[in-house]
Every structure is written in structure tokens, then in C-alpha cells.
Amino acid sequence: MPIKLGPNAYGKNAVNLSRIIRHAGHHEFRQVSVSVQLTGDFDAAHTLGDNSLILPTDTQKNTVYALAKEHFTGTIEAFGLVLARHFVSRNAQVSKARIEILEHLWQRMSFEGQAHPHAFTGGGSEKRRAVVELHADGTTTVWAGIKGLMLLKTTDSGFAGYPKDEYTVLPETTDRILATECEAEWEYTAADLNFEELYQQVHLSLLRTFSTHKSLSVQHTLYAIGEKILEETDEVKEISLIMPNKHHIPFNLEPFGQANTNEVFVATDAPFGYITGTVVRG
User: Where is the active site (predicted)?
Assistant: First the structure.
């Protein structure tokens, strides 16, 4: 039976980049991690050790930093498009470039209602994400997303009516804490959109739906979030969500002579429910 090379790609991951954008009177601080993946005519490198078509990953890293000075002044989606076009246009052997950018969110400090010109706060778990794929024929796909978004509400959530067997001890409830570390990724319908405006619109829709939805399960809320985003944003083709259920278990106070009034809980890290879903247009 003949043996041949299957699908393959290579690139540089976790190119950590910080950028100061200097405006008159204030600075912006941006911190991202960029990953580059190239697909193309690399068979000879694998089978013959011929590196003549292998653009060094160190060169890829340097390209990210060099292009950041002029081109990383707006959205991470726009910067991803610049990088993808650079690698595809400069290297005939590359059939597809995939750029993934994860942004750590920093905000200017504010005192007495006045934003400080060059001091920032950040370090939270929420990160903004963008992925760009550009094929040599010009076909371009842009995804955006959120990672590490901590969400919690203290009521308007329940879980009841589920099947029970001899191993079921979980009591039904119509009033519980709903908490999750949400991850979302959505695909845009085009590559020439107002990515900043659309990101903020999707982000706000996600938060608003989570907070106002009368949740009968995590799945119920996941679908409601995706449905609302697609209804409100024509430029989003589909959206995938990951919503692990971060459990807060009511603590039994009765042994201590106190009534259980759904106010004291044990926060658990593991195990946890893991709920995923993709909402698409019909």
C-alpha cells in the first residue's frame, strides 16, 4: 500500500505583542497573542527535507511585529486581514493563511469621572478573539469571538422536568444561580464590515439576553442568546457558544438551626456541566 503525506500546515503560535497607540492627550494600550498557520505546497519539506518553500516561523514572528507599527491601530480583525494578505501575496506556495488573534482587554483608569491619559486596568478573564482565513484565490472568512466571559445571575434560572433513574439525587429547582464562563465564536458574512461596531453589538446582545432570559436550562439560554444575536445582526452567519455550568450548590443550614432560604451556596470548580451549541440561519 503506498504511503503519502496527508493534510499538513505550520506556523508560529503565541506571538505576544503589546502596542501603544499615541493620541494627542492620551494613549491606547493593546495586548494580543497572534498565531499564524500556513497551508500549501510543503510536501518536499516533509518527504525530502527540502526547505526551499518553508518560510521560517521566526520570519513569521518578525512580520507580526513589523506590520503592527503601521497596521495594528484598529480592530484585531483588520490586523488579521493585513497579516493574511501579506503571507498569501508574498508566498506563491501558500494556498491558505489562517491568523488567530486573542486580545487581552485593558481600559484606561478613571478618577472623578475623568479618564487617565496613560494608566490602565485589566487582567480579567475576558478576552476578545478574531480568526481570519484567506485562500490564494481570494476567498476570505472572518470569525470573531469572546473567551473567558464570566456570567452569573442569582435568579430567573431553574432546572426541572428531567429524566430520573436510580442514580439521580439532584433535586429539581425553579430558582437557582446560573453561572458560566462563556466562550462564543461567530462567522461574519463578509470581510469588509465595521468589525468594531458589530463586535460591540453582539457583545451587548449576549449580555442583555443572558440577564433577561427566563432560563429553564443552560441549553435554553444558550439557544436564546444565539437566536437573538442572529435576529439583531444580519452580518452574522452563525454563532457557536460554549457555556460550562459553574455550579453553586445550596448549603444545608438546617443542622445549625437555620432555615434554607437559597442564600448560602458552595461554589464548586469541578466537576461541571459542559454545554455547547451552534445556532444557524434556517
Answer: 12 (charge relay system), 57 (charge relay system), 247 (charge relay system)
Contact 170, 158 (CB under 8 A): no
Quote the pLDDT of residue 264.
96
- Please identify which of the residues 135, 203, 237, 247 carries the catalytic annotation: 247
Domains within the chain, CATH numbers bracketed: 11-138 (3.10.270.10), 140-282 (3.10.270.10)
247 tagged catalytic? yes
Catalytic residue among 57, 140, 189, 233: 57
Residue 1 has what pLDDT?
Answer: 87
Helix (H, G, I), strand (E, B) or coil at 226: helix
Q: Could you confirm whether 26 is annotated as catalytic? A: no
The answer to whether 234 is annotated as binding is no
- pLDDT number for residue 124: 87
Q: State yes or no: 176 annotated in a binding site.
A: yes
Check residue 30 and give its pLDDT.
97
Residue indicated by cell numbers 497607540? 21
142 is in an annotated binding site: no
- Could you state, in chain order, the average pLDDT of each consecutive group of 10 residues for the chain (282 residues)? 96 98 96 98 98 98 98 98 98 98 96 96 92 98 98 98 97 96 98 98 98 98 98 98 96 96 94 98 93
* 128 neighbors 185 (Cβ within 8 angstroms): no
- Chain-centre distance for alpha carbon 172: 32
Which pLDDT value is given to residue 43? 98
Strand blocks (E) in the chain: 10-23, 26-40, 94-104, 107-111, 114-121, 127-135, 140-153, 178-188, 236-242, 248-250, 265-267, 276-280
Q: Which of 12, 104, 127, 228 is catalytic?
A: 12
Instruction: Mark whether 47 is an active-site residue.
Output: no
Instruction: Check the annotation: does 159 bind a ligand.
Output: yes
